[in-house]
Please model this.
Amino acid sequence: MSLIPSFFGGRRSNIYDPFSLDIFDPFEGFPLSNTPSSFRETSAFANARIDWKETPQAHVFKVDVPGIKKEEVKVEVEEGGVLQISGERSKEQEEKNDQWHRMERSSGKFLRRFRLPENVKMEGIKAAMENGVLTVTVPKVEEKKPEVKAIDISG
Model:
């Protein structure tokens, strides 16, 4: 399996992962100076960072969502076994007399989708938020061990 390093941000992604629905964007990380402000507002937070690991018992997704309340995040499973994690960080209200010196925190909507493997229990999915990290745990179906039957040897 080949891992390809990203040119921007040092993020690595697996281009051969059959479960990932992420779309490669060669311009990710470039300033959005020539785009309309409405596009910047909705795309600035579009790529919430996610880790996905598989344990013997479950698939575990960890999403960095600092500054977002759990009421502002949605975790859904669509038909066909697609896990969808979405939310929105509101832009801070600007007061008329405020003078901003720097504005680096992103705001806007995010949406990430992952095709779940067939060996998961859809009814057992759990999500929890703690310290700006959303953890989604998708339990796996217990594998049936092949039944072995001892045969008596006569004679």
